[in-house]
Amino acid sequence: MYARIVFVLRTRQKRRIMKSYKEIEKKHSPEEIAEALVFPNTDSISEKEAFMSEFRTFRKTLSENQTEKNKRISRLLQLKYSIEDYINSPNFMKDHFFGFFLKAYINSLGIKNKDFAAAIDIDPTELSQIINKHRNPTDKIIYRLDIHSNRNFPAVMWFRILEKDREALLLHNTELIEKEKRHVKRKLDFSF
Question: Model's pTM, two decimal places?
């Protein structure tokens, strides 16, 4: 019953809007209607430049007055959004791998690798190997990253970065694919 009432009310509202628009169309040309709805740009170039200069000064003042904590939060939020964009993107970028994002996380905190390694209780050498793509992180390290970030960078997010790395490796490792073809005796004779 409620849904029917809502439908009837919306239908009546649409009819009133269409009726009003038809009355406006009778009195004005399409160009006049468009001019009334679109804000004309009356600023001169010098006015725009003055406004932009004032806006830049305002932004600079805001940035300078920001506390170190707020700056760190801003950097971390920017990193989190970058990671989410990368994870949700269908494309793989060679320079965006687990170590790249881990290094960006550490840099966003504004601490040294050695201090970060101590904070999550791993050897600095192991951290360096993960950052430089010489070793994959273990599950315990990913969970420690989750805990260290107070769940702002959840373990699932770090695992998804690893998944994307692994997917690219599987798709583009032609040498391994060719090597493994020798071990397959009979394959399907069709493809979907």
Answer: 0.66
